[in-house]
Amino acid sequence: LWRFGYSARLLKTNHFRTAASNTSFPAVWMLLAQYSGRIPGPFVVVKKPTFSTMPETVEDKANPELYSPHPRVRGMTLLNREAFKRTVVVPALKVKKEIVNSLLKSLKQLVLQRPGLKRVVEDPDDEDSRFIILDPQKIPGFSLGESEQQVLKELSVDPEVSRYNLELTYENFKSEEILRAVLPEGQEVTSGFSRVGHIAHLNLRDHQLPYRHLIGQVIIDKNPGITCAVNKTSIIDSTYRNFEMEVLAGEKNLVTKVKENNTVYELDFSKVYWNPRLSTERGRIVELLKPGDVLFDVFAGIGPFAIPAAKKKCRVFANDLNPESYHWLLHNCRLNKVDSKVKAFNMDGREFLRGPVREELSKELPLMKEEQKNAFHVVMNLPALAVEFLDVFRHLLVGEPCSAAALPTVHCYGFSKHEDPAKDIQERAEASLGTSLDGRCSTYPVRNVAPNKEMLCISFQVPADVLYKRPCP
């Protein structure tokens, strides 16, 4: 009864008589004694090692349910925070308040660590004393080890362990513990998400969908700054690179602000593509650029490659087919005060390569000298399709090839489910270009997208015999 948080009023009911018949005599005696007022407050001092005040299951340090929410929450689909309450018994040490800090440092590995719980509580019977709450998982049998007892002896602390009736509430449980208690036993629990400003972006499994609104609210409750939780409801649209989503909990405002690599972006998450997991990769590419370089961003999105490159004093040509991405690209260029350094376009990727990119390369490459250090880079971050766009580089320019050092470098992204992803993406790039890249390219693993699905970046200078079409004599 005590363990599951029933009040002493149940002592008068048939529930108590039934439970008492299945409970050890000492435990029943303790319930009666506390109800009758013979034991004051929430503390019970253990006078003899053989005296038990609780069923043995509560003391069992291997009991995985000791810090689980109340079993009645199983199957809950509408969040009821009150239902998570339960009472457990934990060990506590009574100490003089002036040595609390010293003891906390000495026993920090044994002190109870739970969200929202105080490690030190007042003694209702002695204003000069405090109780330090210990973790029962680390105090087997509610008995301290020799090393801990030695610490107490040095600080003149009574090694006698008290038992404290601790009430755990919804606020004291972690999101994983709450979801594990709610979802059917044996089912996968996912509490991870991508954070986009104030938005938590989840990708729930089918078996989690009946609990999706509860899951969304738990994520909001347990993560400060998150005020909206959404779930992807369709695959990414290959045309505009966005996806349909459902607001699971919280506010419905999907216009948000994010900061990445010291650059601020604003976006409407429901209308444009943004993946915070690519932050490191975007930083890697920008790190390759030098002031004065030229960047052609074929699938620019809201500008996570283009804007940092412009801040690095590169000349940038940025394009995206999605009108919403184009709108936020312009907005973010103004926000970061690089709008004068970025030429933005709202075109199909092929048209962008055959139009502004070809025009700029035709104008600049013949002027390049051997000693000139500025470089041209082309970023193609559309992993589902970008490799198929590489055929545009075939005879994109007409005339005599420029110096090898001035040939544009392409950074093209792709997905692969092949057992050798690097070999796979190189072969696909070679098929689109119509030439071998052996010894002329490098592949970089970006991230694991799903089981047996990798995202990679292949980088190479476009071979002169591919890029140039020589004029007829």
Automatic annotation (TrEMBL):
<dbReference type="GO" id="GO:0070901">
    <property type="term" value="P:mitochondrial tRNA methylation"/>
</dbReference>
<dbReference type="GO" id="GO:0002939">
    <property type="term" value="P:tRNA N1-guanine methylation"/>
</dbReference>
<dbReference type="InterPro" id="IPR056743">
    <property type="entry name" value="TRM5-TYW2-like_MTfase"/>
</dbReference>
<dbReference type="GO" id="GO:0005759">
    <property type="term" value="C:mitochondrial matrix"/>
</dbReference>
<keyword id="KW-0949">S-adenosyl-L-methionine</keyword>
<comment type="function">
    <text>Involved in mitochondrial tRNA methylation. Specifically methylates the N1 position of guanosine-37 in various tRNAs. Methylation is not dependent on the nature of the nucleoside 5' of the target nucleoside. This is the first step in the biosynthesis of wybutosine (yW), a modified base adjacent to the anticodon of tRNAs and required for accurate decoding.</text>
</comment>
<dbReference type="GO" id="GO:0052906">
    <property type="term" value="F:tRNA (guanine(37)-N1)-methyltransferase activity"/>
</dbReference>
<dbReference type="Pfam" id="PF02475">
    <property type="entry name" value="TRM5-TYW2_MTfase"/>
</dbReference>
<keyword id="KW-0539">Nucleus</keyword>
<dbReference type="InterPro" id="IPR030382">
    <property type="entry name" value="MeTrfase_TRM5/TYW2"/>
</dbReference>
<dbReference type="InterPro" id="IPR056744">
    <property type="entry name" value="TRM5/TYW2-like_N"/>
</dbReference>
<comment type="similarity">
    <text>Belongs to the class I-like SAM-binding methyltransferase superfamily. TRM5/TYW2 family.</text>
</comment>
<dbReference type="Pfam" id="PF25133">
    <property type="entry name" value="TYW2_N_2"/>
</dbReference>
<keyword id="KW-0808">Transferase</keyword>
<keyword id="KW-0819">tRNA processing</keyword>
<keyword id="KW-0496">Mitochondrion</keyword>
<keyword id="KW-0489">Methyltransferase</keyword>
<keyword id="KW-0963">Cytoplasm</keyword>
<dbReference type="InterPro" id="IPR025792">
    <property type="entry name" value="tRNA_Gua_MeTrfase_euk"/>
</dbReference>
<dbReference type="InterPro" id="IPR029063">
    <property type="entry name" value="SAM-dependent_MTases_sf"/>
</dbReference>
<protein>
    <submittedName>
        <fullName>TRM5 methyltransferase</fullName>
    </submittedName>
</protein>
<feature type="domain" description="SAM-dependent methyltransferase TRM5/TYW2-type">
    <location>
        <begin position="193"/>
        <end position="464"/>
    </location>
</feature>
